[in-house]
Amino acid sequence: MNKNYVKIVLLLFVATLLFTGVKAQNADKKWGVGLYLNFNDYKGDIANDFWEFGNAEPYIGSATLGRYLNSSFDAVFRVSYFNVESEGAIGNFDAWLFNTNLNLKYKFNNGYFLKEDATLSPFLVAGVGYTNADTKGRVFASNFDKKYDNVNFYYAAGLNIRIDDRWSIALETGIYYPLNDKYDGYKNKMRDTESYHDKFMHNTVGVIYSFGKSDDSDGDGVSDKRDECPNTPAGVAVDKKGCPLDSDGDGVADYQDECPMLAGDPLLAGCPDSDGDGVADKDDKCPDVKGLVQFAGCPDTDGDGVQDSEDECPQVKGLKALNGCPDSDGDGVTDAKDKCPTTKPGYKVDAMGCAFDNDKDGVVNEEDKCPEVAGPASNYGCPEIKAEVKKELEFAAKNVQFASGKDELTPNSKKILDEVVQILNDYPAYSLAISGYTDNQGKDEMNLMLSEKRANATKKFLTEKGIAMERISAKGFGESNPIATNATSAGRALNRRVQFELEIK
Q1: Using only C-alpha atoms, what is the Rg of the chain?
Q2: Which of 1, 100, 158, 269 is deepest in the core (most CB within 10 A)?
Q3: Percent of the chain having pLDDT more than 90?
Q4: End residue of a domain, out of 211, 226, 241
C-alpha cells in the first residue's frame, strides 16, 4: 500500500469526523461501529458474476464508523478488505481490494415514512472513496500482476433490523464503481463502457453497536430525542419515554402522588375519594358517607354548620353553640329544654329558658320596676301604697309649713317630715316628688324663687335623714295652685306649703 493511499484514507477519516459534527448541538447523535461479513462479486470484461452467490466466498472484511446527523441522515465511514475471483472466456483474475468510503446514508425511519424506533428500516447509501487493488491473472494468454489505486463511487440499499437501543443488524447490497477499468487486467476500448466497465457488488451482513452520550437535558437517562417529558425534576424515576412513573395509572406521577399505589383523583394528589365528597379517603373521617370538606368528609344533614356526629339535633337546623339544636327565642336554651320558648329578646333566663323573677311576683325582672319586692303586674311589679300611707302623705303635705317670706321649716313641720322619712324607708322602690308653693304676698318672681327654695329645703331635710338624693326631686311653682284663700292669714298659711307624691322609679 503506497503512501499516497494512506494519506487519502486519513483524510477521509478526518473528513468523516468533521462532517458528522455539523449538528452536534441540536440533534440526539449517536456513534455506531459495525463489523460485517462480505460476499463480493465482479462484473466486467471477463465475466458477469453479479448475483451468482456460488462464486462469492464470505469474508469478515468490512468495518464502519457511523454518526447520527438527524432523523433522516447518517454519515458512515467504511473500510473494506475483500477478495474477488473470476474466470471467463478471455481469461481470469484474482484480486485483493482494500477500500475506504465516506458515505451518506438516508434512513426511511425518519418519522416521515416510518417511526424512528421502527424495528425494520430500509435505507439508501451513496458516497465516494478510494480503492487499492492487488490483481493477478491471465487475459488472452498474457499473465499480469499489477496494483491499482483510484477513486471509486459507491451506492447501495439495505435494511436495518433494530434489536434494542444499542444493537442492530444491517443487511446491505452495494456497488463499487471504480474510475479505473483495469482491475481485471484488461480494458477493451471496443466494448460498451457502461456495460463492461469493471465494478464490484458488495453484499454484507453485520452487526452495529451504537454508543456515545445523547443530549439529556433533565438528566433522567432518556435522551431528549425520545423524552416525552423533557423537564422531569432531578432524581425522579421515569419510564422508557422519560416520563415520571405513575404506578397506579391515575395521571398523577408517583413523586407527586400521596397515594402512589391507589388510583385516585388528580385534584386530591392522586388519592381516592370513595364517597365523592372532595375529601381523600385517607383524610376522610366518614369515608363511606358523602360529607363536607370542612368537616373532614363528615355530613351535616340539616346544614347548620354542625356535623351529624356532634349534632344533638341532626334533623333540625340549629346553632353551633348549642350543638346543632334550635333556639327559637334566642335565649341560649334549646327549644327541647326551653319551658318558656317565647321569651323576649335580651331577657336573662335560667337553665329552663325562663326569664328571672327575683321577687316571685309573676313579673320578670326586665319588666319589674321593683324586682326585689313583690308587687302586682298592674303596678309594674311594685307593692301598692296602702291607703293609710296615702293619708299620712296628704296630712304631711298640708301641715309642713314655713315662716312667712322664708324657706325655714317650722319645728312642727320637721316632726311631720320624720314620718315621710319612715314612709320612704318602707317603700324603697318609690321616689318622692316635692312641689313647693307660696301665698300671693309679694312679687310673682320672688314667690317662684321662694317656692323653689322651700322645695329644696324639704329635700335637704330628707336626705340628711338618710334618704338617697336620687330618690327625691324638688321643684317650686310659686303662688300657683292655692289650696285656700289668700284673703285671710289662715288661708295664706295653708298656701305656704309643699306637696308630696310617691312615684315608682
Answers
A1: 63
A2: 100
A3: 25
A4: 211
Query: What angle, 0 to 180 degrees and rounded to 10, lies between the N-to-C axes of helices 387-399 and 411-426?
Result: 150
Residue 205's CATH number:
2.40.160.20
Please report the pLDDT score of residue 20 as a whole number: 39
238, part of any domain: no
What pLDDT does 25 receive? 28
CATH of the domain at 458: 3.30.1330.60
- E-assigned strand segments in 31-141: 31-43, 59-68, 73-88, 91-107, 120-139
Task: Return the C-alpha cell found at 451.
Answer: 317656692
Does residue 394 lie in a domain region?
A: yes
Q: Are strands 430-436 and 472-476 parallel, antiparallel or unpaired?
A: parallel
Ranges of residues in the chain whose predicted pLDDT is under 50: 1-27
339-357 tens-digit pLDDT: 888 888 888 988 888 988 8
HEC readout, 350-372? CCCCCECCCCCCCCCHHHCCCCC
- pTM beyond 0.90: the answer is no
Max Cα distance, the chain (Å): 194
Backbone angles phi, psi at 243, to 5 degrees: -100, 145
Which of 176, 211, 246 is a domain's end point?
211
Would residue 326 count as lying in a domain? no
Domain that holds residue 462: 387-504
Q: So what's the pLDDT on residue 395?
A: 84
How far does Cα 400 stand from its chain's mean position?
89
Q: What is the pLDDT of residue 53?
A: 64
Rounded to whole angstroms, how far apart are CA atoms 486 and 479? 10
What pLDDT is stored for residue 59 in this prediction? 65
Question: How many other C-beta atoms can be found within 10 angstroms of the C-beta atom of residue 278?
Answer: 15
Asked whether residue 235 is assigned to any structural domain, the reply reads no
User: 270: which residues sit within 8 A by CB, 6+ positions away?
Assistant: 248, 250, 251, 252, 256, 257, 258, 259, 260, 262, 263, 264
Tell me what pLDDT residue 175 has. 93
Give which of 104, 103, 106, 43 is closest to 79, Cα–Cα: 103
Query: Hunting for cell 498474457 — which residue is that?
Result: 142
The pLDDT value recorded for residue 21 is 37
**CB burial of residue 263 (10 Å; 0-12, 13-18, 19+):** middle
Cell of 337: 329544654
Q: What is the pLDDT of residue 1?
A: 44
Q: pLDDT at position 188, please?
A: 67
Q: What's the rounded Cα separation, in Å, for the pair 131 and 113?
A: 34
CA 189 to the chain's CA centroid: 85
pLDDT at 11: 42
Asked whether the beta carbons of 59 and 12 are under 8 A apart, the reply is no
